[in-house]
Amino acid sequence: MAKADPKKADSTKADTLKARLPRGFVDRRADEIAAQHRMLETIRQSFELYGFEALETPFVEYTESLGKFLPDLDRPNEGVFSFQDDDESWLSLRYDLTAPLARHVAEHFDAIPKPYRSFRAGYVFRNEKPGPGRFRQFMQCDADIVGAGSVAADAEICMLMADTLEKLGLSGQYVIKVNNRKVLDGVMEAIGLSGEDKAGQRLTVLRAIDKLDRLGVEGVRQLLGEGRKDESGDFAKGAGLAPNAIERILAYVSFQAAPDAEGDRMAFWEQFFGSWSEVVGSSETGREGIAELHAIMRLCAAAGYGHDRIRADPSVVRGLEYYTGPVYEAELTFPVTNEDGQTVRFGSVAGGGRYDGLVGRFRAEPVPATGFSIGVSRLFSALQLTGSPLLEGTAKPGPVVVLVLDRDNIADYQRLVARLREAGIRAELYLGGSGMKAQMKYADRRGSPCAIIQGSNEREAGEVQVKDLIEGAKAAGAIASNAEWKAARPAQFSVKEDEMVERVREVLARHF
What would you report as the CA-atom Rg of the chain, rounded to the nearest whole angstrom? Predict the structure, then answer.
């Protein structure tokens, strides 16, 4: 008997590819996809109630269309996944859903009604270092109003965020926090960070403040100063501000207050925003931002949205520089327990703001715009950990499996499958090469409510066996021996082929 060649075996093993998922990406299976679909459907209904219409943009855009605030055209893979087309133009996977919207509006400006209310849902891609809860591909769901310069549009966005979270079953467990980048610009002016030459430093400051919830005051203080080393040992260079400038910014973003439930809310807000005026000093931009923020609060209050749902908060800045006015975040306010038994605070699950300059990059005249984005995966995880009934839905049965006991007559089994499908019943023909016992195990793993069995005797009699797998599993627990099992054949019955569809429907109706 010839011996196997060990070198040949090693070569074959070496040529086998290792199955592995790229870092920062995830696979999702049927149950999670169905549950997320139910969540997205609820969001869609909320958006449409406000008059928003659906829009879909492609995954790929010209890199230059994504904006100077996202990739660096001299380093086209910085932050985004990019490649060159056959004409040597740089293309990138979309970084978010806002830049593609800006391009779409500018390209079809004369054909769309303005103000233009649209919503989009889809995957976006970040060429960044992955980590816990930080992915390179994730889904966003956006709603935007383009062509409305009034802060009434910003108030509408805040109310839409609140109502959407209400419909997702999060009543009393969230708050929409609102700020205005003009106020922050006023603070920047007050500490000497105005002018084009300070743009990079201002962006570093904004991104540092945006991490307040995650890093705390001390972590932000380091990022406003010389810099900070994270848990992995990586060092992030800071904004390099002087100590007095750092303390002024921290005093502003840390200021929190709430109106007395029994008191005059409007009087409170007059006093609240009056204190902000002291921070921005004589900055006209800062005072304009305070007035806009005050107007948003008045509009929300008039529509019945109290401080418990929508409130002004100076800690909200949003990290992207393209925001030009009001900015907002939806924060979950409750702790949840993860799989390791740890208490986790989710924080922000959605956010956005006004970006009046983004569409204008493609046109001679400025085009006002405002909107927000939901982090779908993050919100979905929060709903999972809270045991949201929205994600449970109605149990969906697996397909009815038609077993194949005689492969020479496979056309007869295919005919049975076709009858079930014509009746609108999910069904599949077993396509493997195993025997009956393995086929039954396969049907169980598929979550099948029942299996169709037809041997030669049943075929000659024009009958099939319908095995109710759910009822059979229940009965199996009460049967002690194999002989008893064979004698009882629980939940299995014979029917004429013409009655098969009706009897299968009865099984489905009983369990679902």
Answer: 30
Does residue 483 surpass a pLDDT of 60? no
Distance CA(405)–CA(418), nearest Å, equals 17
pLDDT at 71: 44
Residue ranges of E strands in 203-319: 227-229, 235-237, 310-312
End-to-end CA distance of the chain: 59
Binding-site positions: 96-98, 126, 140, 144, 318, 322-323
pLDDT digits (tens, 9 = 90+) for 90-138: 899 999 999 999 999 999 999 999 999 999 999 999 988 887 777 899 9
pTM value?
0.79
Rounded to whole angstroms, the maximal C-alpha distance in the chain is 97
Q: Which residues pair with 354 in a beta bridge?
A: 370
Q: Compute CA distances 226 → 219, 251, 276, 295, 501, whole Å.
A: 11, 19, 27, 37, 73
The full set of domains in the chain, from first to last, is: 35-191+255-267+281-392 (3.30.930.10), 400-511 (3.40.50.800)
Enter the tokens of residue 389.
């009934």
Q: What are 262's two structure tokens?
A: 């029994």
CB-based contacts of 502, cutoff 8 Å, min separation 6:
none
Long-range contacts of the stretch 433-436 (C-beta < 8 A, 24+): 436/403, 436/405
Which residues participate in the annotated binding site for L-histidine? 96-98, 126, 140, 144, 318, 322-323
